[in-house]
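Below is a filled-in request sheet from our internal design queue. Each sheet records the structural input a requester submitted and the sequence that came back. We keep these sheets so that new team members can see what a complete request looks like end to end.

REQUESTER: design group, bay 2
PRIORITY: normal
MODE: inverse folding
CHAIN LENGTH: 430
BACKBONE (tokenized):
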């Protein structure tokens, strides 16, 4: 077992100096079967790249601090929110690897505030978001505003992420992409207020298990994706055989499928999860240019407390973000062109079928807490096919809306709604 040690640890473990070359050299020198142990201390670093057969252990009190300098994250081929493109590496990268484990009670801290301010300014009203939105470019700003992720697992196999804490990521915390046989267990995600600080994103992966994690963030707590647009639809790399169980979701937007669905998503089990004050419980989101499919989804044994939208399905989600310009983009970056190339016509309507929700209990801790039991909007011309709701008890402010569904069944569904459904509550920002 290789262990990271320093002759003068105080110099390197105080978080004052970027020590990326020292850490990377130790990784590079490790042999298959070695575990690199990061001892207690604060280690300031840019992008680190693990290699096959070498594991990383974060000891009690060990903190990897993400550099606040974008130059410390080299541009690499990756995928960002469904688009294959060049973007900065993450803090810890598992790229084209197999048999890697990241574990231990320590922490990866992205020091995300500098990246959040880059996106929306110090007051959440400025930054690149305000600039791009004023120019009609809301659809591209998330991709142009480069922000490091805490962990990226890309084109890898047999990966275990176990027990550490990921906090304050500049962008997504854990991004699993084009990978298989990945286990995420006992991980703690803690993000306070940053934009697009998803907890765990499972992107065009297969054979993934997420268990016993606690996730608090400012966007989707756990999300399953499969690419966005024409290129992803042509590649047809689906997300499939995924299980999410025994997790606790606190602040955030719940467990989501989409909005990147172009490669297809199937055979997903979501069970025995607890939600506390999340914006959404279970959600499906897509748009009219995504295409792909969502099918064979089993959601069961969920406990939701003070969740605003226990069940939300929106297949024309966030138009300002979902639909790009189709004008002359010849002089624009390749990712602009990819964003503008959606799946056109009827093929762009995501086929959603065989979704079963059962044994779900949602309650409010007080009458002043707003909740809408159902907010389901399928496509009128391609309804969601076969939605089964059974053994559900929901306490809500209002019942909500259900449309665009074929073969909708209710079996032992009890809803208490204290007020009439109000159109003013039809929006959800995340």
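RETURNED SEQUENCE:
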């Amino acid at each position: 077992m290789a262990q990271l040690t320093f002759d003068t640890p105080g110099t390197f473990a105080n978080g004052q100096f970027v020590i990326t070359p020292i850490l990377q050299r130790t990784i590079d020198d490790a042999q298959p079967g070695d575990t690199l142990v990061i001892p207690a201390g604060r280690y300031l670093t840019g992008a680190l790249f693990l290699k096959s057969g070498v594991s990383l252990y974060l000891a009690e009190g060990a903190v990897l601090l993400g550099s606040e300098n974008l130059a410390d994250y080299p541009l690499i081929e990756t995928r960002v929110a469904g688009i294959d493109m060049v973007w900065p590496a993450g803090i810890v990268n598992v790229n084209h690897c197999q048999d890697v484990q990241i574990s231990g009670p320590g922490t990866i801290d992205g020091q995300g505030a500098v990246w959040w301010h880059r996106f929306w300014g110090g007051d959440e009203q400025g930054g690149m978001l305000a600039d791009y939105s004023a120019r009609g470019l809301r659809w591209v700003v998330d991709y142009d505003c480069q922000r490091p992720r805490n962990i990226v697992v890309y084109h890898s196999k047999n990966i275990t992420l176990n027990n550490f804490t990921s906090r304050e990521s500049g962008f997504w915390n854990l991004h699993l992409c084009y990978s298989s046989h990945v286990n995420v267990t006992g991980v703690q995600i803690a993000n306070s207020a940053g934009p697009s600080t998803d907890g765990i994103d499972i992107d065009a992966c297969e054979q993934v298990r997420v268990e016993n994690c606690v996730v608090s963030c400012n966007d989707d707590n756990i999300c399953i994706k499969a690419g966005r647009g024409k290129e992803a639809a042509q590649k047809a790399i689906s997300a499939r055989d995924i299980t999410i169980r025994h997790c606790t979701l606190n602040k955030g937007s719940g467990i989501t499928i989409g909005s990147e669905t172009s490669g297809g998503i199937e055979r997903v089990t979501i069970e025995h999860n607890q939600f506390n004050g999340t914006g959404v419980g279970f959600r499906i989101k897509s748009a009219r240019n995504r295409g792909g499919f969502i099918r064979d989804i089993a959601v069961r044994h969920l406990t939701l407390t003070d969740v605003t939208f226990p069940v939300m399905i929106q297949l024309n989600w966030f138009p300002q973000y979902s639909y790009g310009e189709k004008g002359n983009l010849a002089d624009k970056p390749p990712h602009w062109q990819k964003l503008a190339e959606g799946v056109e016509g009827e093929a762009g309507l995501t086929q959603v079928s065989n979704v079963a929700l059962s044994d779900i209990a949602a309650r409010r801790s007080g009458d002043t807490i707003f909740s809408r039991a159902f907010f389901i909007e399928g496509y009128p011309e391609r309804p969601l096919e076969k939605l089964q709701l059974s053994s559900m008890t929901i306490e809500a402010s209002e019942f909500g809306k259900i449309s665009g569904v074929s073969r909708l069944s209710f079996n032992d569904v009890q809803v208490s709604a204290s007020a009439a459904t109000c159109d003013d509550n039809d929006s959800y920002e995340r």
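SHEET NOTES:
- The domain at 9-425 is CATH 2.160.20.10 (Pectate Lyase C-like).
- The longest helix spans residues 20-29.
FILED BY: M.R.
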